[in-house]
Every structure is written in C-alpha cells, then in structure tokens.
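Structure ticket #2291
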Amino acid sequence: MPPGADLTLLQSPVARMSLALLAIDIDGTLVLKDDSVTPGTRAAVRRAQADGLGLVLATGRRYRTSQRALTALGMRLPVICLGGALVKDAAGETIRSTPFAPAVVRALLALARQHGLALLLQRDAHARGGPDFVVDMAPPWNEPTRGYAQSAGAICQPDPAPENAPCEDVLLVGCFGPRRPLAAFQRHVGEGIGPNSDLGSVLVPSQRTPGWYLEITAGQVNKWTALRRFAADSGVAEEAVCAVGDALNDLPMIRGAGFGVAVGNAAPALKAEADWVTGANHEDGVATLIDRLLEGRASKG
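Resolution: structure written out below.
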C-alpha cells in the first residue's frame, strides 16, 4: 500500500491502539549506503525518544557495526543484532544471546565446503572477548568474502580449521557469494543436516559487498522472536509494537508486530506483507512514519 493511499496510520484500527515501541532496521531502512542518516530522520528519531516512544534497532549486523548507525544518530539505543541472535541494551551489555549447538556449526562448515563456500561464524566479542567473527579458510575465498574480512581487520579471525574450536559461542552463520551457489547451499541446509538442527535462513542482496549474502540462524531465531521477547521484558504488548524494514530478514517482525511497515525501497515481498508502506530510506521514510506515530499518540493524549 503506497504512502498516499487512503488508509493512513491514524485511520488504521491498529494505529488507534497505543503503539509503545518502534523497532527500526538499519541497512536500507535507517541508514543510507554510506552509513549516514538523513537530518530529517535523525531529528525524527530524537523526537520519538523525547516523546517517550520506545526505540530499538533490529538488524542483521554485528553489534560493533551497529554502532555506526547509533553514532550517526548521536544516540544510545538497545540493539537486536545478528538477525535476532544477540540483544544488547543501550549501554552495550548483553541481554540475551542464542548460540548454535556446536555440532550444528561443524555440520554447516562441512556442508559449505562441499559447495566451495567459506562460512563466517559471528560471535558476541564484546561480552566474550576475541574476534567478532571467524572465517573458514579451508575453501578458497571469493572476492566478497575477502573484501569483508579485510575491511574488518583484527576483529576478523581467519581459521583453517574452525571445527576444531569449541564452537559453543557462534550466534549467526553467514556466507557471501553469487546467488546461484548460495541458493543451492541454502536448499541443502533446509533439507536438514542432522538431529536437532532446526535452522532458519534468508538469502538477500548484500548491502556492503558485490553479490548476495546468506544468513543462517539457529532454531526459531529471527528478528521477531527477539523483538517479541524484548517487548515483553519492557512491559509492551505485541500489539503495541511497530516494526519497519526493507529486506526479507525483516519479514518475521513485519508480520508479527502490531503494525508492520515497509520503506518505499523495500523488497516487493515485504511490501506485500506490510500493513503500510512509507517513503524510501533516502526520502526520510522513517521520519514520515515517526511523525504519524507521534501524531497518533498526541491525538490520544
């Protein structure tokens, strides 16, 4: 539904409820490609905080790279990161993390090697120490993997045999490359890799490198399961949550939230599931959403 449609947030039955928490995706939603935030969006997010609207970022990024968005906002906010596997409070303390079973990590490494793909094993380095992520060196690295690892520098640990490590702190498994080999790997992951290996995955265009990115999470981990629990811990009902995003890894929270919003540059499948479509990220779409949410809150005051 386009932003100019007759149904607005204020006319919607959901919007007339007390929306108390706004979850904002980072890439493609809050920030531009250079990690900047438009002045209009920055001002709107600050107005939302001043008005008492709860705010949380929800992203597939690592916690460290999520800080770039907070720096651009000039704010400290809670962050649901690594696709929902890690939740940090505004001070950077870990609220919750959901790691893979070590046997599943080892099985994924073996399967990826059969496809000639190098996996990235993401961790909570801020809580546990060590690197942000480990990259399997056994398969040859493609250019996106090499570029991602090199840009990370010392916070990336190349490892020729990561399966020999304990593997008990892996929160998200990622993989860069062309769409076709990643899709084939994703299909095999979906077919199961052994007992107790319930996995979720999403294949999306990569925001930071050429090609595509495959994100694999443990069990029922996704942005919505983490956001729903964060809301409950904050005393906020699911119906009082608004979520906004642009990509398929945002789909669970767009479906689950009381009001799910897609930005104008979102994937068509996400727009089709959203309750409302705001402007694109470069058109202050988040600011448009926030202004309408605040207007709705004021009308109930």
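Closing remark: Residues 21-97+222-299 form a domain with the Rossmann fold fold (CATH 3.40.50.1000).
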